[in-house]
Amino acid sequence: MAKITFMGAGSTVFAKNVLGDSMLAKPLQDAHIALYDIDPQRLRESKRMLQVINKNANKGRAKITGHCGVANRKTALRGANYVVNAIQVGGYEPSTVIDFEIPKKYGLRQTIGDTLGIGGIFRALRTIPVVLDFAKDMEAVCPDAWFLNYVNPLSMITGAMLRGTSIKAVGLCHSVDACAPRLLQYVGLEGKVKKLQWKVAGINHQGWLLEITDGGKDLYPEIKKRVARINAAARKNPDKRHKDMVRFEMLLKFGYYVTESSEHTAEYVPWMIKRTHPELIEEFNIPLDEYPRRCVKQIENWKTRSKELTENPKLDHKRSAEYASYMMESMETDVPCKIGGNVLNNGLITNLPHNCVVEVPCIVDRSGVNGVYVGDLPEQCAAINRTMVNAQLLTIEAALTRKKDYIYQAAMMDPHTAAELSIDEIRNMCDDLIKAHGRMMPRYK
């Protein structure tokens, strides 16, 4: 019987997907599912929901236990085969508010702030220490378990686990599988492609759609014609603006489509969100402060949604496309599956640093997660990736060494931050952020 420990079980909707999926996978139906959270109410809600799904969709075969607080963390982890990470350290208030409001005082605007940028850096700095504590407990009570990380900033957290602990870890994200189908939808080719094939490689949230074909026919020439026409019209006419204008422009200028959305992509590069060119915000339909808006909306929606999920005796589940259950099933049965995984770059992408985390095709079986060799990315794609990797690696160094200079240097190397602020402004902003976070971050020297 496998044991699956879910860290951050108060993420009720996501827990439903991953653990509901697991209960529908035959080799995992009798698993012990250990739920862990520091919020007792959210833990109770998720446990109640999963017990109903277990009864309705799994004939009650799974064993479900709840474990609340740091004192009970080792119990939740003990003997686990798989540990799914879905925590958020600091929540919307105060942490996300701090991540957005303090940079805004310096004139630095963000859209999402969970992957890179100053928001992503500080999200990593308060999350990595918690995840490293998980790793210490895992090394003591489940040293052979796989750590399946879904938490952003994905590359930095996964990288810290892989470089700072002995735990086997992989980062998992939705954006890879959605990339090619969404692009076809956006350009009006949805339903017209019969034998779609694609290849993605790069880094998380900035993977590159290197190939997209229909039965071997390259679709990029037709896609680029349509993208050029769509964006040219949208930049001139506000009524034709759409939500993927930044990614379309990146495709036109650099030749390849990126995996993550335009609101994300806009803050990963130095050209889109600029005080010196405020007109670009409207021209490329860039939603500043998008993540705080989503947080407020989700908090409000949860008041209604929580009852639907946690107080419905007829609640059922259909297996989703989330990677986790398919990976666990493959490790249990030795029947391989293919995923887009985030792993340490041990020569997989040859023109990116060896110590960074890359997002590449991976084969999963009983031996674990095995990245597929990609070779060189197109040089312009690797160059853009490296600008993100620079900040990621310095943030990991800050988290592992607790040296404040690495925080400053990470922020200085961030493409968007460096394009907007001076060195002194960056250092002062980081100091303000460190002070505002207080005990949510460890002390840095």
Please tell me how large the radius of gyration is: 22 Å
CATH superfamily of one domain: NAD(P)-binding Rossmann-like Domain
**Helices and strands: which structural class?**
alpha/beta
Strand content: 15-25%
Any idea of the CATH topology of one domain? Answer: Rossmann fold
H/E element sequence: EHEHEHEHHEHEHEEEHHEHHHHEEEHHHH
Give the overall form: globular
Number of strands: 13
Q: Count of helices? A: 17
Mean pLDDT: 97
Portion in helices: 40-55%
Major beta-sheet overview: 9 strands, mixed
Low-confidence blocks of residues = none
Distance from first to last alpha carbon: 46 Å
CATH architecture of one domain: 3-Layer(aba) Sandwich
Strand order of the largest sheet: 3-2-1-4-5-6-11-12-13
**Name of the level-1 CATH class of one domain:** Alpha Beta
